[in-house]
Amino acid sequence: MPNPSDPPVRPSMVSVALRPRMIGLLLLFLLAAAVCARLGVWQLDRAHERGDLADRQAAAEAQNQGPEGLGALLEPQSTFPGDLVGRQAWVEGEYVPGTQMLVEGRAHDGEPGFLVLTAMRVSEDGTGGASWADLSGAPVLPVVRGWVPASTDGSDPDVDASVLAEPAGTVRLVGYLQASEALGQGSSVPGRTDSISSASLANVWGGPIYSGYLVVSSSQPSQADAIVLLDRPSIEGGDGLNLQNLFYALQWWIFGGFAVLLWLRLVRDETRGEEKSADEDPFGALARAEAEA
Q: pTM above 0.70?
């Protein structure tokens, strides 16, 4: 029986932590921390992969001694792989008359303007037509021919419409690949759009169509000098270590640390709670300690 003269039994954090229930919770929290740590490592790997994208593209182009045929990289009606962003490719075909559109709200070097977007009916992509042999016909490739500045009020291009006319006949293009954009809100101005979405363009131009588009870097025959050629597209953060993925990795590791800290707080709170109970009811605390012993 408890002796009234004995001091109340005060549990230590170690004794509370070694109880079966707390050990079970510790294992559960350690499992959660391990999952968070693994997700953090995965995000760190992604940061390095995206950071090395430009180097891998340059190495692939050097290995192949220049741009590859479009068909060797991307087939029409197929999913666009993310690692093709900015990859150089060549293609031949004819611009489809009446398909040219201006993409609104596209700045270049801080200056507002428009992208010049045109449909090309592909005739050669390096596969001799094999890449679309099972489709309904030769595919349509969205082509960004370049950029033109906006007028002072920003409502129209600051170049004559005749300058934007696409070359007639067979054209050979070299350019950079870019993934299709998300569907935009559309434009109220005829011949304008606010996004380069293959799904939307297929409804206007017909198909089959590619799931990405080509940003022209050179053209034979050449196009008007007023159309400014654009730099190589890249994934955001594609040069150097990708900070977004790095921050995600740090967040996962912090979450894992919180799991362990949460267990320590539970042990501390339970210890303090029992100390308070011992001060208020020493005999009850002693009986509970003996029951748990």
A: no
